[in-house]
Amino acid sequence: MKVELFKNLATEAIKPPQPQEQVQMKLNTKKTEAREMEKREKEKFKKVNLEEIAQALQKFLEKFNLETKVVFEKKYNTLVVKVYERDTGKLIRQIPPEELLEVSKRLQELVGILYRNKA
Questions:
Q1: In angstroms, rounded to a whole number, what is the distance separating the alpha carbons of residues 90 and 82?
Q2: Are the beta carbons of 78 and 94 closer than 8 angstroms?
Q3: Residue ending a domain, choose from 63, 78, 97
Q4: pLDDT digit string (tens) for 71-96?
Q5: Residue 94: how many CA atoms within 13 Å on its side-chain side?
């Protein structure tokens, strides 16, 4: 009886992974690769200087008598690009638009409410 038990344990330990286990292993590997790729992309983004981008945009828009300002909106926790007419200072366009920022803020609030209610 002891011999059979040891035989079963030995065969269990040597068994190749089942198809489900193989799929799970592949998924875990893909997730790890995706996380590493995301980290590399974030590092690249950090290296890009936002001021340089803003200056290049400003130089391009000077040709059209326009001026831009890149502003971090604390209220919405995001960057906003505002395009002004250089002569009058009139706001011509905001990217993303104010309405979209409000919708995004409301959706985040709803997600927070749903998350709190679920817990």
A1: 10
A2: no
A3: 63
A4: 888 888 888 999 999 999 999 999 99
A5: 14
User: Model confidence over 21-74: pLDDT tens digits?
Assistant: 766 777 777 778 878 888 777 776 665 667 777 788 888 988 999 998 888 888
The encoded tokens of residue 43 equal: 């590092």
User: Which two structure tokens, joined as six digits, stand for 93?
Assistant: 């366009």
Count of Cβ atoms closer than 10 Å to residue 64 Cβ:
10
Number of domains the chain contains = 2
State how far Cα 68 lies from the chain centre. 25
Q: Which residues of 94-116 are buried (b: 16+ CB within 10 A; e: fewer)?
A: beeeeeebeeeeeeeeeeeeeee
- The residue type found at 117 is N
38 and 71: one domain?
no
